[in-house]
Design brief:
Blueprint (H helix, E strand, L loop, with lengths): L1 E2 L10 E2 L10 H4 L3 H7 L10 E2 L5 E2 L6 H4 L21 H24 L5 H29 L1 H7 L1
Antiparallel strand pairs: 1-2, 3-4
GO cellular component, one term: extracellular region
Subcellular location: Secreted
Protein name: Peroxidase
């Protein structure tokens, strides 16, 4: 996949790969430890969110929107996620939000079932489950629709 350079200036397209080629949900967790750590709340295995007045949880806002997004104002909406492309299209942000909420929902259930687990264990176990969900959706639900049941049956 290619992209034009930032700020939409004319020029050649640049190759980019923002996340890994593995089905590891790195769009939620990041593909580098520093980013993954910055997305964690470090409490109850949860990921950071921003909470709206009506109690809904969304992706956290970037602390540096002019650096992280193609915006000119620090007041612009710009989200933080495991994949920097989160701000390129509302549909992408929605998928990221959905999986962030699912991670936190699962971490909450795990904490209720395993009160002796620390933050790190809760985070890692919730992450493993979310990755399994992402792989299931991709292999069992999406690929058969795109490639056809017959072809997928031969390769899986």
């Amino acid at each position: 996949m290619t992209t034009l350079n930032k700020k939409c200036r004319l020029g050649p397209a640049e190759q980019f790969s923002a996340v890994t080629h593995f089905l590891d949900a790195s769009f939620v967790y990041g593909s580098e430890q520093l980013l993954a750590d910055s997305l964690r709340l470090r409490q109850g295995g949860l990921l950071k969110t921003q909470k709206t007045k009506d109690g809904r949880h969304f992706l956290p806002n970037s602390k540096e929107p002019t650096k992280d997004c193609d915006v000119e104002s620090e007041d612009s909406v710009c989200y933080e996620a495991g994949d920097g492309r989160v701000n390129q299209h509302p549909g992408v942000a929605i998928i990221h939000t959905l999986f962030l909420r699912e991670h936190n929902r699962i971490a909450g259930i795990l904490q209720g079932l395993n009160s002796h687990w620390d933050d790190n264990r809760l985070y890692l176990e919730a992450k493993r489950i979310v990755i399994a969900i992402w792989q299931h959706i991709t292999y069992i639900e999406w690929l058969p629709l795109v490639l056809g049941e017959y072809f997928v049956g031969d390769i899986l």
